[in-house]
Amino acid sequence: MGIGASGPFTTPQEARDRIASIFGGIGLMTAASPAVTANMAAGLVPKGRIGCLGGAVLDRKYHARNPLIAATSNPARGSRSFGGVARNVAENLARLGVETCFVSVVGDDEGGRALLSQLRDLGVDVSSVGLIDGHPTAEYVAILGPDNDLALGIADMDVFEAFGPEMLDRIWEALAACDWVFIDCNLPAETIAALMARKSEARFRLAVDTVSSPKALRLPENLAAIDLLFTNVDEANTLLGLDPAARLSATEAAVALRGRGAADVVVTMGARGSAIVTEAGARFQDAFPARPVDITGAGDAMIAGTLFALVAGASLDDAARTGALVAAMTVESPFSVRPDLSPDMLADLPVPPSAR
Question: N or C: at which end does the chain have fewer Cβ atoms within 10 angstroms?
């Protein structure tokens, strides 16, 4: 895939200029609904509060300089940052101007305190995060090949077992004040089930990301409490209990998951796009073209962009196009969350192709 020949986005203005020139040349602005064209011209304005519950992780990335060789030392370039699906979504939302609260558990250690300080400085409400003695803050190590694709991921997430159902009583008032609550499946299965059971007590809409194939199985059989489910095609097939011989396509899997009760379902396939299934039916959304520098955080950016547009009043189809745009801009940077992401960065950009 490619987005022009001049390399990745480096500044907000370059992102605007390059994408606008590409879409201006192929007429994709006409594919957007008039409302979306007007909103993108004026800038989407978020009008709600989003709560993010789940992973808060210290990320370490190692980019191999040469093709990886097993069972030996490989030269690499390393970096450290803050991560975790829910944390990344919260940071993206804050940078896009959304009122955001974040709920998780971290170790009572230097890494955990630094992670919370960074979110607090961005305006995220972290007052409901628990500091846990006896467990280090969660850590994730990503090994990427010279092609920038993930070759191996290693995770120490034991601290999240401390996020039990009893914690919901302490944070419920904060959640009840939200328009949307987003959770990732780093939470224990019993905590997810308890939150879904209590959802009827509050007015918020619930969005869920499955995170990985093993963690997708933490969701209950009945998904009726979920207003918007994000998953990829592998995780969707795992959640449906299907073996490789019975594997479903993204659209088929999304339809099946909606049959399990989820109101709306987005099943992603990376650069190949996403299947969207709602009460109105199924359609496919093309991915936004990009030249990846680092794919880590793409799914989190897509989720954040979608939720940002939803609280700004967009339809799910239009919101998913905004999510695709934020994801593409993220993979064209070396960061899991673009530090220059802002509402102004999106305000003058056209949307990706319409769902079909």
Answer: C
| Mean pLDDT value across the chain | 87
DSSP letter assigned to residue 194? H
The 8-class DSSP code of residue 355 comes to: P
Burial class (CB in 10 A: 0-12, 13-18, 19+), 149: exposed
- Measured between alpha carbons, how far is 258 from 247 in angstroms, rounded to an integer? 17
Percent of the chain with pLDDT over 90: 74
Which pair of tokens denotes residue 290?
């990009």
* Contacts (Cβ under 8 Å, ≥6 apart) of 315: 33
Q: Per-residue confidence at 21, pLDDT binned at 50, 70, 90?
A: very low
User: Hey, what are 148's tokens?
Assistant: 């920038």
| Residue 341: partners with Cβ closer than 8 Å, 6 or more residues away | 92, 95, 96, 326, 329, 330
**Range in 103-117, 151-165, 270-284, 339-353 with the lowest mean pLDDT:** 339-353
Per-residue pLDDT tens over the stretch 55-103? 999 999 899 999 999 999 999 999 999 999 999 999 999 999 999 999 9
Provide the token pair at 295. 């794919």
Cα(23)–Cα(20) distance, integer angstroms: 5
Q: Are 196 and 225 in contact (CB under 8 A)?
A: yes
Strands (E), 73-136: 76-83, 99-103, 105-107, 130-132
What's this model's pTM, rounded to 2 decimal places? 0.84
Angle between helices 34-42 and 316-331 (to 10 degrees): 50
Closest of 138, 135, 140 to residue 155, by C-alpha: 140
**What are the tens digits of pLDDT across the range 311-326?**
999 999 999 999 999 9
Q: What is the DSSP string of 153-189?
A: EEEE-GGGGG--TTHHHHHHHHHHT-SEEEEETTS-H
